[in-house]
Amino acid sequence: MSKEVKNIDLMIIGGGPAGLTAAIYAARAKLDMILLENAVVGGQVRTSYTIENYPGFKTIEGGKLADIMQEQAEELGAKIDEFDLVQSAKLTDEEKVIETDSYIYKPKAVIIATGAMPKKLPIPNEEKFSSKGVHYCAVCDGAMYGDKIIAVVGGGNSALEEALFLTKFASKVIMIRRFDYFKGEKATIDEVLNHPKIEVLFNWDLVDVEGETYLEKAIIKNTQTNEQKEIQIDAVFGYIGTEPKTDYFKEDINLTKGGYIIADESTRTNVKGVYAAGDVREKQFRQITTAVADGTIAALDAEKYIVEKRRDK
After folding, report:
1. Which residue among the candidates 93, 101, 140, 247 is catalytic per the annotation?
2. Strands in the chain per DSSP E
3. 140 has catalytic annotation
4. Backbone torsions φ then ψ of 12, nearest 5 degrees
5. Active-site residue among 81, 137, 252, 301?
6. Pick the catalytic residue: 141, 208, 234, 279?
7. Residue 235 domain boundaries
8. pTM given for the model
9. Rounded mean pLDDT of 248-261?
10. Which of 239, 273, 298 is the last residue of a domain?
11. What is the CATH number of the domain that holds 226?
12. Which residue, 227, 182, 188, is CA-closest to 204?
């Protein structure tokens, strides 16, 4: 059975802060639009336990902030579909075609806000112990390890914040850091270094993990002396960076070597009427506030583009 073809003004792919902000502006502009999200609306924000750097909120749970954004978009009339997954995309100056499980969409403009996913730990047994001791979301899986020993790999804000969150459950949190410094905010670094439940192993790297059915120990290596040893842990959470979700677009959209979409400060890509917003775009800083800014700019520029396309007809 052939799929129904839907001609719409705007398709937003991705429901994190960038996508939801774009949806708010598009809905206010009365555009015929839809937002598709193949995971959970809110993106990485929803997995953040506490957010303290978003204007207007001294502190707020990530899930609650995501709910507020989604509710605002939907109350304005934005259509959000979490269950119709994208199968393929063909994006050219002349035509945009997005095929999902249920429909074939032909939008005048597309905003790509698919974000990025955590990089997997580069260890031989990563797949063997995935969800059996190897994890990437403390909010999702931390509660499984009450009174256990948990390791955290990484040195940026995400690793620091998640280590602090995991102290709510773990008897001990061991931070494995391959360098002798952290890259996060000073206040967060100080909190980690002074926390009684956190032990920091500077100049150590994770080599592998082992166990029977579930993870039982980690093998770590000193980056200065090459000394190798085992430490007993029950779980390890990796925060070593992210990878953009751009597989559907690599044939048509210019990407960096790392897979991020190349777009200017107007969020325009190399294809007319296609924009990149949020963590998926190549840029210096990736924060909730910068994602929201991208979503705003992309939606406003897309509206102008769509109006011009209507006039051409």
Report:
1. 140
2. 4-13, 33-36, 80-81, 86-91, 96-100, 103-112, 116-118, 134-135, 149-153, 172-177, 198-202, 204-211, 215-222, 228-232, 235-238, 242-244, 274-276
3. yes
4. -110, 125
5. 137
6. 141
7. 120-239
8. 0.81
9. 95
10. 239
11. 3.50.50.60
12. 227
